[in-house]
Amino acid sequence: MPATEADEIDDLRELFLHDVPLLDVRAPVEFAEGAFPTAENHPLIDDDERQQIGITYKEEGQAQAIELGEQLVSGDLKARRIAQWKAFLQRNPNAVLYCFRGGMRSKTSQRWLLEEAGIRCPRVRGGYKAMRGFLLEQIERNSALCRPVVIGGRTGVGKTRLLARCSSQIDLERLAHHRGSAFGNHPQPQPTQIDFENAFSIALMKLVSQGNPYFAVEDESRNIGSRHIPPVFYKRLETAPLVLLEASDEERVDITLQEYVHDALAAFQQDTDEQTGFRAWADYLQTSLDRIRKRLGGERHQRVSRMLQSATEQHAQRGDTTGHRGWIAYLLHEYYDGMYSYQLAKKTTRIVFSGPGDAVLDYLRDRYQIESKDARSADINKA
């Protein structure tokens, strides 16, 4: 039985709200440029095959291009690709597939799955192009509907930690895979701008669909690493109420030590041996410091570089991380605090509350109905 219109879906909102698994049959180069959080790439044709077919289509027409495609992907190669689709669909029986426009590649994949594996898999009408366009439209629509509450505060006060305790929030740094500072890089690269926008659009759409337009988001600049926040949403952040999280200097050093020393080192060592990971992490710290050399000034940069080198050597030789507290405290007070005070002076009219973590959570709950995950867990345990 050939695939029919019943095997085509166009409710993109439900697709993204429910995290439906997506079988992307585009070429790897297309997938690398941009895809969706729940998508896996198992192509019908690879990059070279796509190029050959594209040339034939331009020079000889569609019929000859289709014929070439059938020749290039046949026999054992065809069987292997169908087996990959079958394995994916066995793990994700509710999945749907898509190509770039929802045309020939999607229909061919559907037909092969049905004929060779007996599996019916719906395709997305309009394919990737329709889904991407839908998510861009949703950014515009939901940015107008949402009411973000911005969590600000000095570097090291634990804004990201507090955000994680909010039941209604968007963690832009997690989506951008970057901590949003000169030391913000992770061992793995950032997503493409398209991937970041797609993931952000879905997260925002989910929040707005819950009914309460208010949610917490961390105070960010326009760019998070090399990814930029969609302008229409950033404009909302620039006028949103600002809640300032406060913490003692000692707490700020503790938090920064945990995130940029212990957690970052563990991340660098995750996929390699300890020594190689340590060297890569130490290089990342020095490179990050060099990135702000001009703003620090030569003398201060040299001083903190010596402190960092001494702390890293002590760490490597004895496993003692206490030496890192010195350069962390120096940077917090001599560099980050000055920048923070300058930026905060432009935002004073937006400040609606300031206080330590628990007080901030109480305020968010009472004023904006943004619940704390801690409170929800306690309620569940009581029940």
Give a quick precis of the structure.
The chain is an alpha/beta fold.
- The oligomeric state of the chains shown is single chain
Order of helices and strands: EHEHEHHHEHEHEHEHHEEEHEHHHHHEHH
* Mean of pLDDT: 94
**CATH class type of the largest domain:** Alpha Beta
What about the largest sheet? 5 strands, parallel
Q: Tell me the domain tally.
A: 2
Given helix and strand content, the structural type is alpha/beta
CATH architecture of the largest domain: 3-Layer(aba) Sandwich
CATH fold annotation of the largest domain: Rossmann fold
Helix content: 55-70%
What is the beta-strand fraction?
Answer: 5-15%
Notes on the protein architecture:
With 383 residues, the chain is of the alpha/beta class. It folds into two domains: 5-134, Oxidized Rhodanese, domain 1 (3-Layer(aba) Sandwich), CATH 3.40.250.10; 146-383, Rossmann fold. It has helices spanning 12-17, 28-33, 47-60, 62-72, 75-91, 104-117, 127-145, 159-164, 172-176, 193-209, 231-239, 249-269, 274-291, 293-296, 298-318, 324-344, 357-368, 373-382; strands at residues 8-9, 22-24, 39-41, 96-98, 123-124, 147-152, 169-170, 214-218, 223-224, 227-228, 242-245, 351-355. Strands 7-8-6-11-12 form a five-stranded parallel beta sheet, with helices on both faces. It has a three-stranded parallel beta sheet with strand order 3-2-4, with helices on one face. A two-stranded parallel ribbon has the order 1-5. It is globular and about 70 Å long.
